[in-house]
Amino acid sequence: MLRNISFFVVFLFCFTIVAQNKLEIGTVIQESKITKFNSQNLILLDFWATWCGPCIPAGEQLEIYQEQLKNDIYMIGISDENEFKIKRFVDAQGMKMAIYQDFNLFNVKKYDVKYRPYSVILNNRGKVVWSGSPSKLYVDFIKRLSRGEKSREYQLSDLFKYNYNKLGDQFSEIDTLDIYSLETRKNIYESQFAKTDTRVYFEGDILSFFSSLYDLPKSNFQTDLDLKITFGSRKNIWDYDKQRIEDYIKNRHDIHLMTTTKRIKSKEVKVTDNSLLWDNTQIEWNADGSGSYIIGEDRIQADNMSIKQVFEVLSDVKNASFHYKGNDENLYDWNFHVTYDNLMIEELKYEFGLEIFESKTEEVEIISIKKSSL
Questions:
Q1: Given the DSSP bridges, would you call strands 23-30 and 192-195 parallel, antiparallel or unpaired?
Q2: Do β-strands 199-205 and 228-234 pair in parallel, antiparallel, or remain unpaired?
Q3: Same structural domain for residues 142 and 32?
């Protein structure tokens, strides 16, 4: 009797440890279109992002390997971006690998992912057997890793904890209603904005939402609210009927906007040599040509963004006001220093033909976002 109890206690302890060590997944964008999961000895996690240029050829090479190693390994691409942004990119690229969304950076942190693309190979019990750049992988090496593992029957749910449904199951209304918004309790580390030919999606804090809606720097808004939303709308409403969206959001989330003015000293951006502006083929992160940017430790890189848009990003980074009053709405690519002002000004002048001038103190609108009931 004691032996049976001891065995049960050990089994329960082991089961608890396995459950606690499951990898947390957000949305399942798609399962593999190349092969079915069939208890392969190995699981490959490929960490990538839509903004990562080298991730595209690396992912294509992994898909070739997946085709050749259907019985040895099941490959999963993982991005920590907004699920709608990932889905749009996956469809545009025609990606065939299984694609999952990370849950609150769980896996990025667990495997200390410092660059993309980055791959981790697990055995069928979830133990890491290899990690590094996928460029260092080849078929024979993966086969040797597989042969070194004892086969067993298991399910993906033994290794992964799924926190959300498959894309489309949970958010069907967001894809069909004229305007959709829902408060979310998810831990969102960075607001995400995505635009397709017909729809607009946003996920993040309310201040960033209105900054995106009105195409204004976040420094033009202020709020004490800890309100995060998941939002969707028809693209034509987003582009041409912003007041309708504002009214909907105010009623939906019981908030109101108050506009005041304050005087600030801003910096004016002028084009002095437009021949130096980079065209939009220098950086190719997004297959559909939509704008995106990365803020690094000392640089801003951007793909397909106008002068006005990139200097709105700079305004938020520098906590200062940069204004472009010209009428050039063309999309360009960008890569310039931001930490030291002198270096930034010099690089913008000689690399992009842009000069920054101190302008007079001027009045700017500051929009406060508050709860209506307060």
A1: unpaired
A2: antiparallel
A3: yes
Question: Would you say residue 372 lies in a domain?
Answer: no
Residue range(s) defining the domain that contains residue 217: 173-253
pLDDT tens readout for residues 204-241: 899 999 998 998 888 889 999 999 998 999 999 999 99
CA–CA gap between residue 207 and residue 198 (Å, rounded): 24
CB of 317 within 8 A of CB of 241?
Answer: no
Q: How far is the C-alpha of 207 from the C-alpha of 224, rounded, in Å?
A: 10
Q: Read off the tokens for 228.
A: 């995060």
Which amino acid does the sequence have at 212? Answer: S
Q: How far is CA 229 from the centre of its chain?
A: 15
246 and 285 share a domain? no
- Highest mean pLDDT pick, 12-16, 48-52, 173-177, 261-265: 48-52
Instruction: Single out the residue of 330, 321, 313 nearest to residue 356, CA to CA.
Output: 321
CA 262 to chain centre: 34
153 and 96, same domain (yes or no): yes
Residue 14 has pLDDT above 70, yes or no: no
Note the residue count of the chain. Answer: 374
Tokens of 334: 């960008």
Q: How far is CA 125 from the centre of its chain?
A: 29
